[in-house]
């Protein structure tokens, strides 16, 4: 039997089985076993435990018991009784109950007619109840009980989080409860998380519980708050969820454990003892009712009550109130006195403040009086000045008036006479006119001459222009010749460039250090190609094709990959992948943000630019996106995601049948596709990275170019791979699904490491098939492709071990030589079989 339940034994009675009701709740109890075997009526007896509640809700009023006249012969059912009562006593109780109920019944029957109607109603109700009980009971419970056999029922009380207490029965694991309308219902599964079963100790034994608050460490959540307590300042509060002791009494009439009123509870021995304990510690507390109420609040923990009162009212409660002083007879008057003292003290304080304010006002008053005196002096002085000025003004007005009176008279207007024409002057004018005419003629002949000269010069110029056009034509021929020379040169340069890349090795390894705000760094960048790691005082150097420091920008990082991207347009398979510990910046390097994109977007942009530049070659670009999650391939662009994908090998090529490929033309096409793919990815928050990639992301861009002039078709693939981060489970504290993912990630990265190690040693067997990741990347890692690997590292000292292992991984890759990359160029008619 579970600790939180009580055993109820249901015994098959001697006489025929009919449902007999004593009280609504009991109806349930009786109906329940009867439904086990409808032909039986049952009696219940309670095992020794006393403090067992059976009421559906403590707040509910007990309904009056009713007994059918026709049921008088039926064996009355015994209610749950407190322990220690004998069967005889119980029988006597039942008889009494039955008698009382008869009395009540007689009183309630006003007439024969109403009695008949009531009986009919009750019969209907009873039938309905019987039907529902039969329906809700689990078939397993409705087993047939042999005569005289005992049916063992576990009785339990379930306290729902909404505050309602339900009575439950457990029979061989089938649990039912009594609902608000006193009906039996199957116990809902979801309730197991919405409340708890109350143990006998909790409910009735009155065991003292130690205050949970003194034992529990709390953490910040919505139960945490703070309040200000005088003398203690602002203190933290926490709403603890604790089990509650409730003092109830057994009501034999209703057959329900009811809540004991406060004034009765004070007389319960258990409560009395605790009240006494509080009073002996706090002699200043004298009101027992108040202490009982406080005990209720504190789950009957006297220590907690003491601590509450000391906190709220101070140590004054440690002293007993002066004997004989009736004003301290109860705590309210004592508290009122304290309050009055506090008010007087406050008033005194206010008085002192007001006195100070009056002093200040007096001072201010005398200062203002002085000010007023000074200002009235000033006003007087100004009045004098004003009078003087008015006198001056008067004088000035007089002067103006006298001057106006003595103004000289205005002289009369002068008349203008017309000048007479001088004949001498007229002669002079006609002479000048003649002279002007002569010079005009001369000027005309000079202009004519100049025009002739200009015409001659124009003719000469025309001849010169003709010669120039001829020279220009010759120059254009020369330029054309130079252009063709340049083209040949460019082709030669490209082939030299590819040869150079081949010489440099088809795997290029870059090291990128993540930006960090941590004070100490375990990395030192000595030059563009060397990084030193400091671990416990010892230094280790690593060489890479390029080392990017914390301050390197996305543009700088991308610049390193530019040469291989150009090769992709020329028909090479190119792969760029990022490897590193979780949170070391792989996704930042590959994907970046919208405002500051990483290698993925920049390389695609560059590809589009190069394709657009080549006028004579038309390109088709197709993009696909997949993730490798827990060693299985997921198509990120599929309209029906979740379909399992597999890898197919044909000769040297590896393909994924059924993988969605979308043709793209512009950058925005590509961005839209990538956004769709990104949304379908498995990303989760881990302790090391808020947005940790839980899968390897592989974006493949197939670039097919057909040259209109040569008729050749090239097909290159740009594979962009953002690997999931290696992680130490002890550090990331991964659990559940994260743990499974972490294990899969680490396993596939180990397989990648094994492939590189085998390549480094030129092993005969390269274990590409050890994981889906290496299997898929086989064409990128087996000589046909050009590969760039970013090893992303964290400079934080706490990540030194992981950083060292990543650098060692990068250094292994650097020693791998993939051999000569092959260009995928075929004549146009054969291009369908190429790859
Ligand atoms: N160079 C950098 N500059 C600024 N922020 C960076 C840089 N590198 C990484 N970060 C930031 O560090 C965080 C972790 O980076 P990121 O998600 O790229 O790591 P990851 O290696 O892809 O991790 P995982 O393997 O868990 O997915 C991100 O918030 C990212 O923006």
Automatic annotation (TrEMBL):
Keyword field contains Cytoplasm = yes
Q: What is this protein called?
A: Kinesin-like protein
- Similarity field: Belongs to the TRAFAC class myosin-kinesin ATPase superfamily. Kinesin family.
Q: Which InterPro entries match?
A: Kinesin-like_fam (IPR027640), Kinesin_motor_CS (IPR019821), Kinesin_motor_dom (IPR001752), Kinesin_motor_dom_sf (IPR036961), P-loop_NTPase (IPR027417)
Q: Where is this region: Disordered?
A: 53-134
Sites where the protein binds ATP: 580-587
Occurrences of domain Kinesin motor (ranges): 506-816
Q: Could you list the residue ranges forming a coiled coil in this record?
A: 337-406, 454-488
Molecular function terms in GO for this entry? ATP binding; microtubule binding; microtubule motor activity
Tell me one Pfam family matched here: Kinesin
Q: Where is the composition biased (Basic and acidic residues)?
A: 60-69, 110-120
- Gene Ontology terms: biological process: microtubule-based movement
Keywords in UniProt for this one? ATP-binding, Coiled coil, Cytoplasm, Cytoskeleton, Microtubule, Motor protein, Nucleotide-binding
Q: Where in the cell is it found?
A: Cytoplasm, Cytoskeleton
Signal sequence bounds: none
Q: What is the organism lineage in this UniProt record?
A: Eukaryota, Metazoa, Chordata, Craniata, Vertebrata
Choose one Gene Ontology CC annotation of this protein and give it: microtubule
**Compositional bias per record (Acidic residues), positions renumbered to this chain:** 121-130
């Amino acid at each position: 039997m579970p600790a939180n339940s009580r055993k109820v034994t249901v015994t098959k009675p001697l006489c025929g089985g009919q449902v007999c009701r004593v009280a609504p709740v009991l109806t349930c109890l009786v109906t329940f076993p009867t439904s086990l075997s409808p032909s039986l009526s049952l009696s219940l007896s309670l095992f020794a435990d006393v403090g067992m509640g059976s009421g559906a809700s403590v707040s509910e009023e007990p309904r009056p018991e009713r007994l059918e006249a026709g049921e008088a012969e039926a064996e009355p059912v015994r209610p749950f009784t407190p322990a220690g009562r004998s069967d005889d006593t119980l029988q006597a109780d039942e008889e009494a109950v039955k008698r009382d109920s008869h009395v009540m019944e007689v009183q309630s029957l006003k007439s024969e007619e109403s009695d008949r109607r009531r009986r009919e109603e009750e019969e209907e109700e009873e039938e309905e109840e019987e039907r529902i009980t039969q329906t809700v009971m689990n078939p397993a419970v409705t087993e047939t009980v042999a005569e005289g056999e005992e049916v063992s029922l576990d009785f339990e009380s379930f306290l729902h989080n909404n505050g309602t207490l339900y009575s439950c029965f457990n029979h061989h694991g089938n649990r039912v409860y009594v609902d608000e309308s006193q009906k039996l219902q199957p116990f809902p599964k979801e309730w197991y998380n919405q409340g708890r079963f109350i143990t006998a100790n909790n409910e009735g034994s009155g065991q003292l519980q130690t205050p949970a608050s003194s034992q529990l460490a709390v953490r910040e959540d919505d139960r945490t708050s703070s309040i200000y307590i005088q003398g203690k300042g602002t203190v933290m509060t926490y709403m603890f969820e604790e089990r509650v002791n409730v003092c109830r009494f057994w009501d034999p009439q209703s057959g329900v454990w009811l809540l004991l009123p406060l004034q009765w509870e004070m007389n319960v021995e258990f409560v009395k003892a605790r009240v006494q304990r509080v009073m002996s510690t706090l002699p200043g507390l004298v009101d027992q009712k108040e202490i009982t109420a406080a005990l209720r609040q504190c789950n009957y923990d006297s220590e907690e009550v003491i601590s509450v009162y000391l906190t709220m009212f101070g140590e004054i409660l440690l002293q007993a109130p002066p004997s004989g002083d009736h004003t301290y007879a109860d705590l309210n008057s004592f508290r009122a006195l304290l309050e009055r003292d506090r008010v007087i003290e406050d008033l005194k304080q206010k008085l002192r403040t007001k006195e100070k304010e009056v002093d200040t006002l007096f001072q201010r008053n005398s200062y203002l009086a002085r000010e007023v005196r000074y200002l009235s002096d000033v006003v007087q002085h100004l009045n004098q000045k004003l009078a003087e000025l008015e006198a001056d003004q008067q004088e000035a007005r007089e002067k103006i008036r006298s001057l106006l009176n003595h103004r000289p008279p205005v002289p009369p207007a002068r008349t203008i006479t017309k000048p007479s024409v001088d004949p001498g002057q007229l002669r002079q004018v006609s002479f000048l006119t003649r002279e002007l005419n002569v010079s005009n003629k001369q000027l005309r002949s000079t202009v004519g001459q100049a025009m002739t000269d200009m015409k001659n010069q124009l003719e000469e110029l025309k001849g010169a222009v003709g010669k120039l056009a001829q020279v220009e034509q010759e120059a254009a021929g020369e330029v054309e010749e130079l252009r063709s020379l340049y083209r040949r040169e460019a082709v030669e340069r490209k082939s030299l460039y590819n040869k150079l890349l081949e010489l440099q090795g088809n795997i290029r390894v870059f090291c990128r250090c993540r930006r960090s705000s941590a004070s100490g760094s375990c990395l030192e960048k000595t030059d563009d190609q060397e990084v030193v790691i400091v671990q416990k005082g010892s230094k280790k150097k690593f060489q890479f094709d390029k080392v990017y420091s914390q301050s390197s920008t996305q543009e700088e990082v991308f610049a390193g990959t530019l040469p291989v991207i150009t090769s992709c347009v020329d028909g090479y398979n190119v792969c760029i992948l990022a490897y590193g510990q979780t949170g070391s910046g792989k996704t930042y390097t590959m994907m970046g943000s919208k405002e500051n994109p990483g290698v993925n977007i920049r390389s695609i942009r560059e590809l589009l630019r190069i394709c657009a530049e080549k006028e004579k070659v038309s390109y088709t670009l197709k993009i696909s996106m997949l993730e490798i999650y827990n060693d299985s391939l997921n198509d990120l662009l599929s309209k029906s995601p979740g379909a399992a994908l597999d890898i197919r090998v044909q000769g040297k090529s590896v393909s994924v049948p059924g993988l969605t490929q979308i043709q793209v033309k512009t950058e925005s096409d590509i961005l839209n596709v990538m956004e769709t793919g990104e949304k379908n990815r498995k990303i989760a928050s881990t302790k090391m990275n808020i947005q940790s990639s839980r899968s390897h992301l592989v974006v493949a861009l197939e670039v097919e170019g057909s040259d209109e002039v040569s008729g050749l078709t090239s097909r290159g693939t740009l594979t962009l791979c953002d690997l999931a981060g290696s992680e130490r489970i002890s550090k990331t504290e991964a659990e559940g699904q994260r743990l499974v993912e972490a294990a899969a990630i680490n396993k596939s990265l180990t397989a990648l490491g094994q492939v590189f190690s085998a390549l480094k040693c030129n092993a005969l067997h390269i274990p590409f098939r050890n994981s889906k990741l290496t299997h898929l990347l086989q064409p990128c890692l087996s000589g046909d492709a050009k590969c760039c690997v970013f090893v992303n590292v964290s400079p934080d000292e706490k990540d030194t071990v992981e950083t060292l292992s990543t650098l060692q991984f990068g250094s292994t890759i650097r020693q791998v030589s993939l051999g000569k990359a092959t260009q995928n160029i075929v004549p146009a008619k054969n291009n369908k079989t190429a790859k």
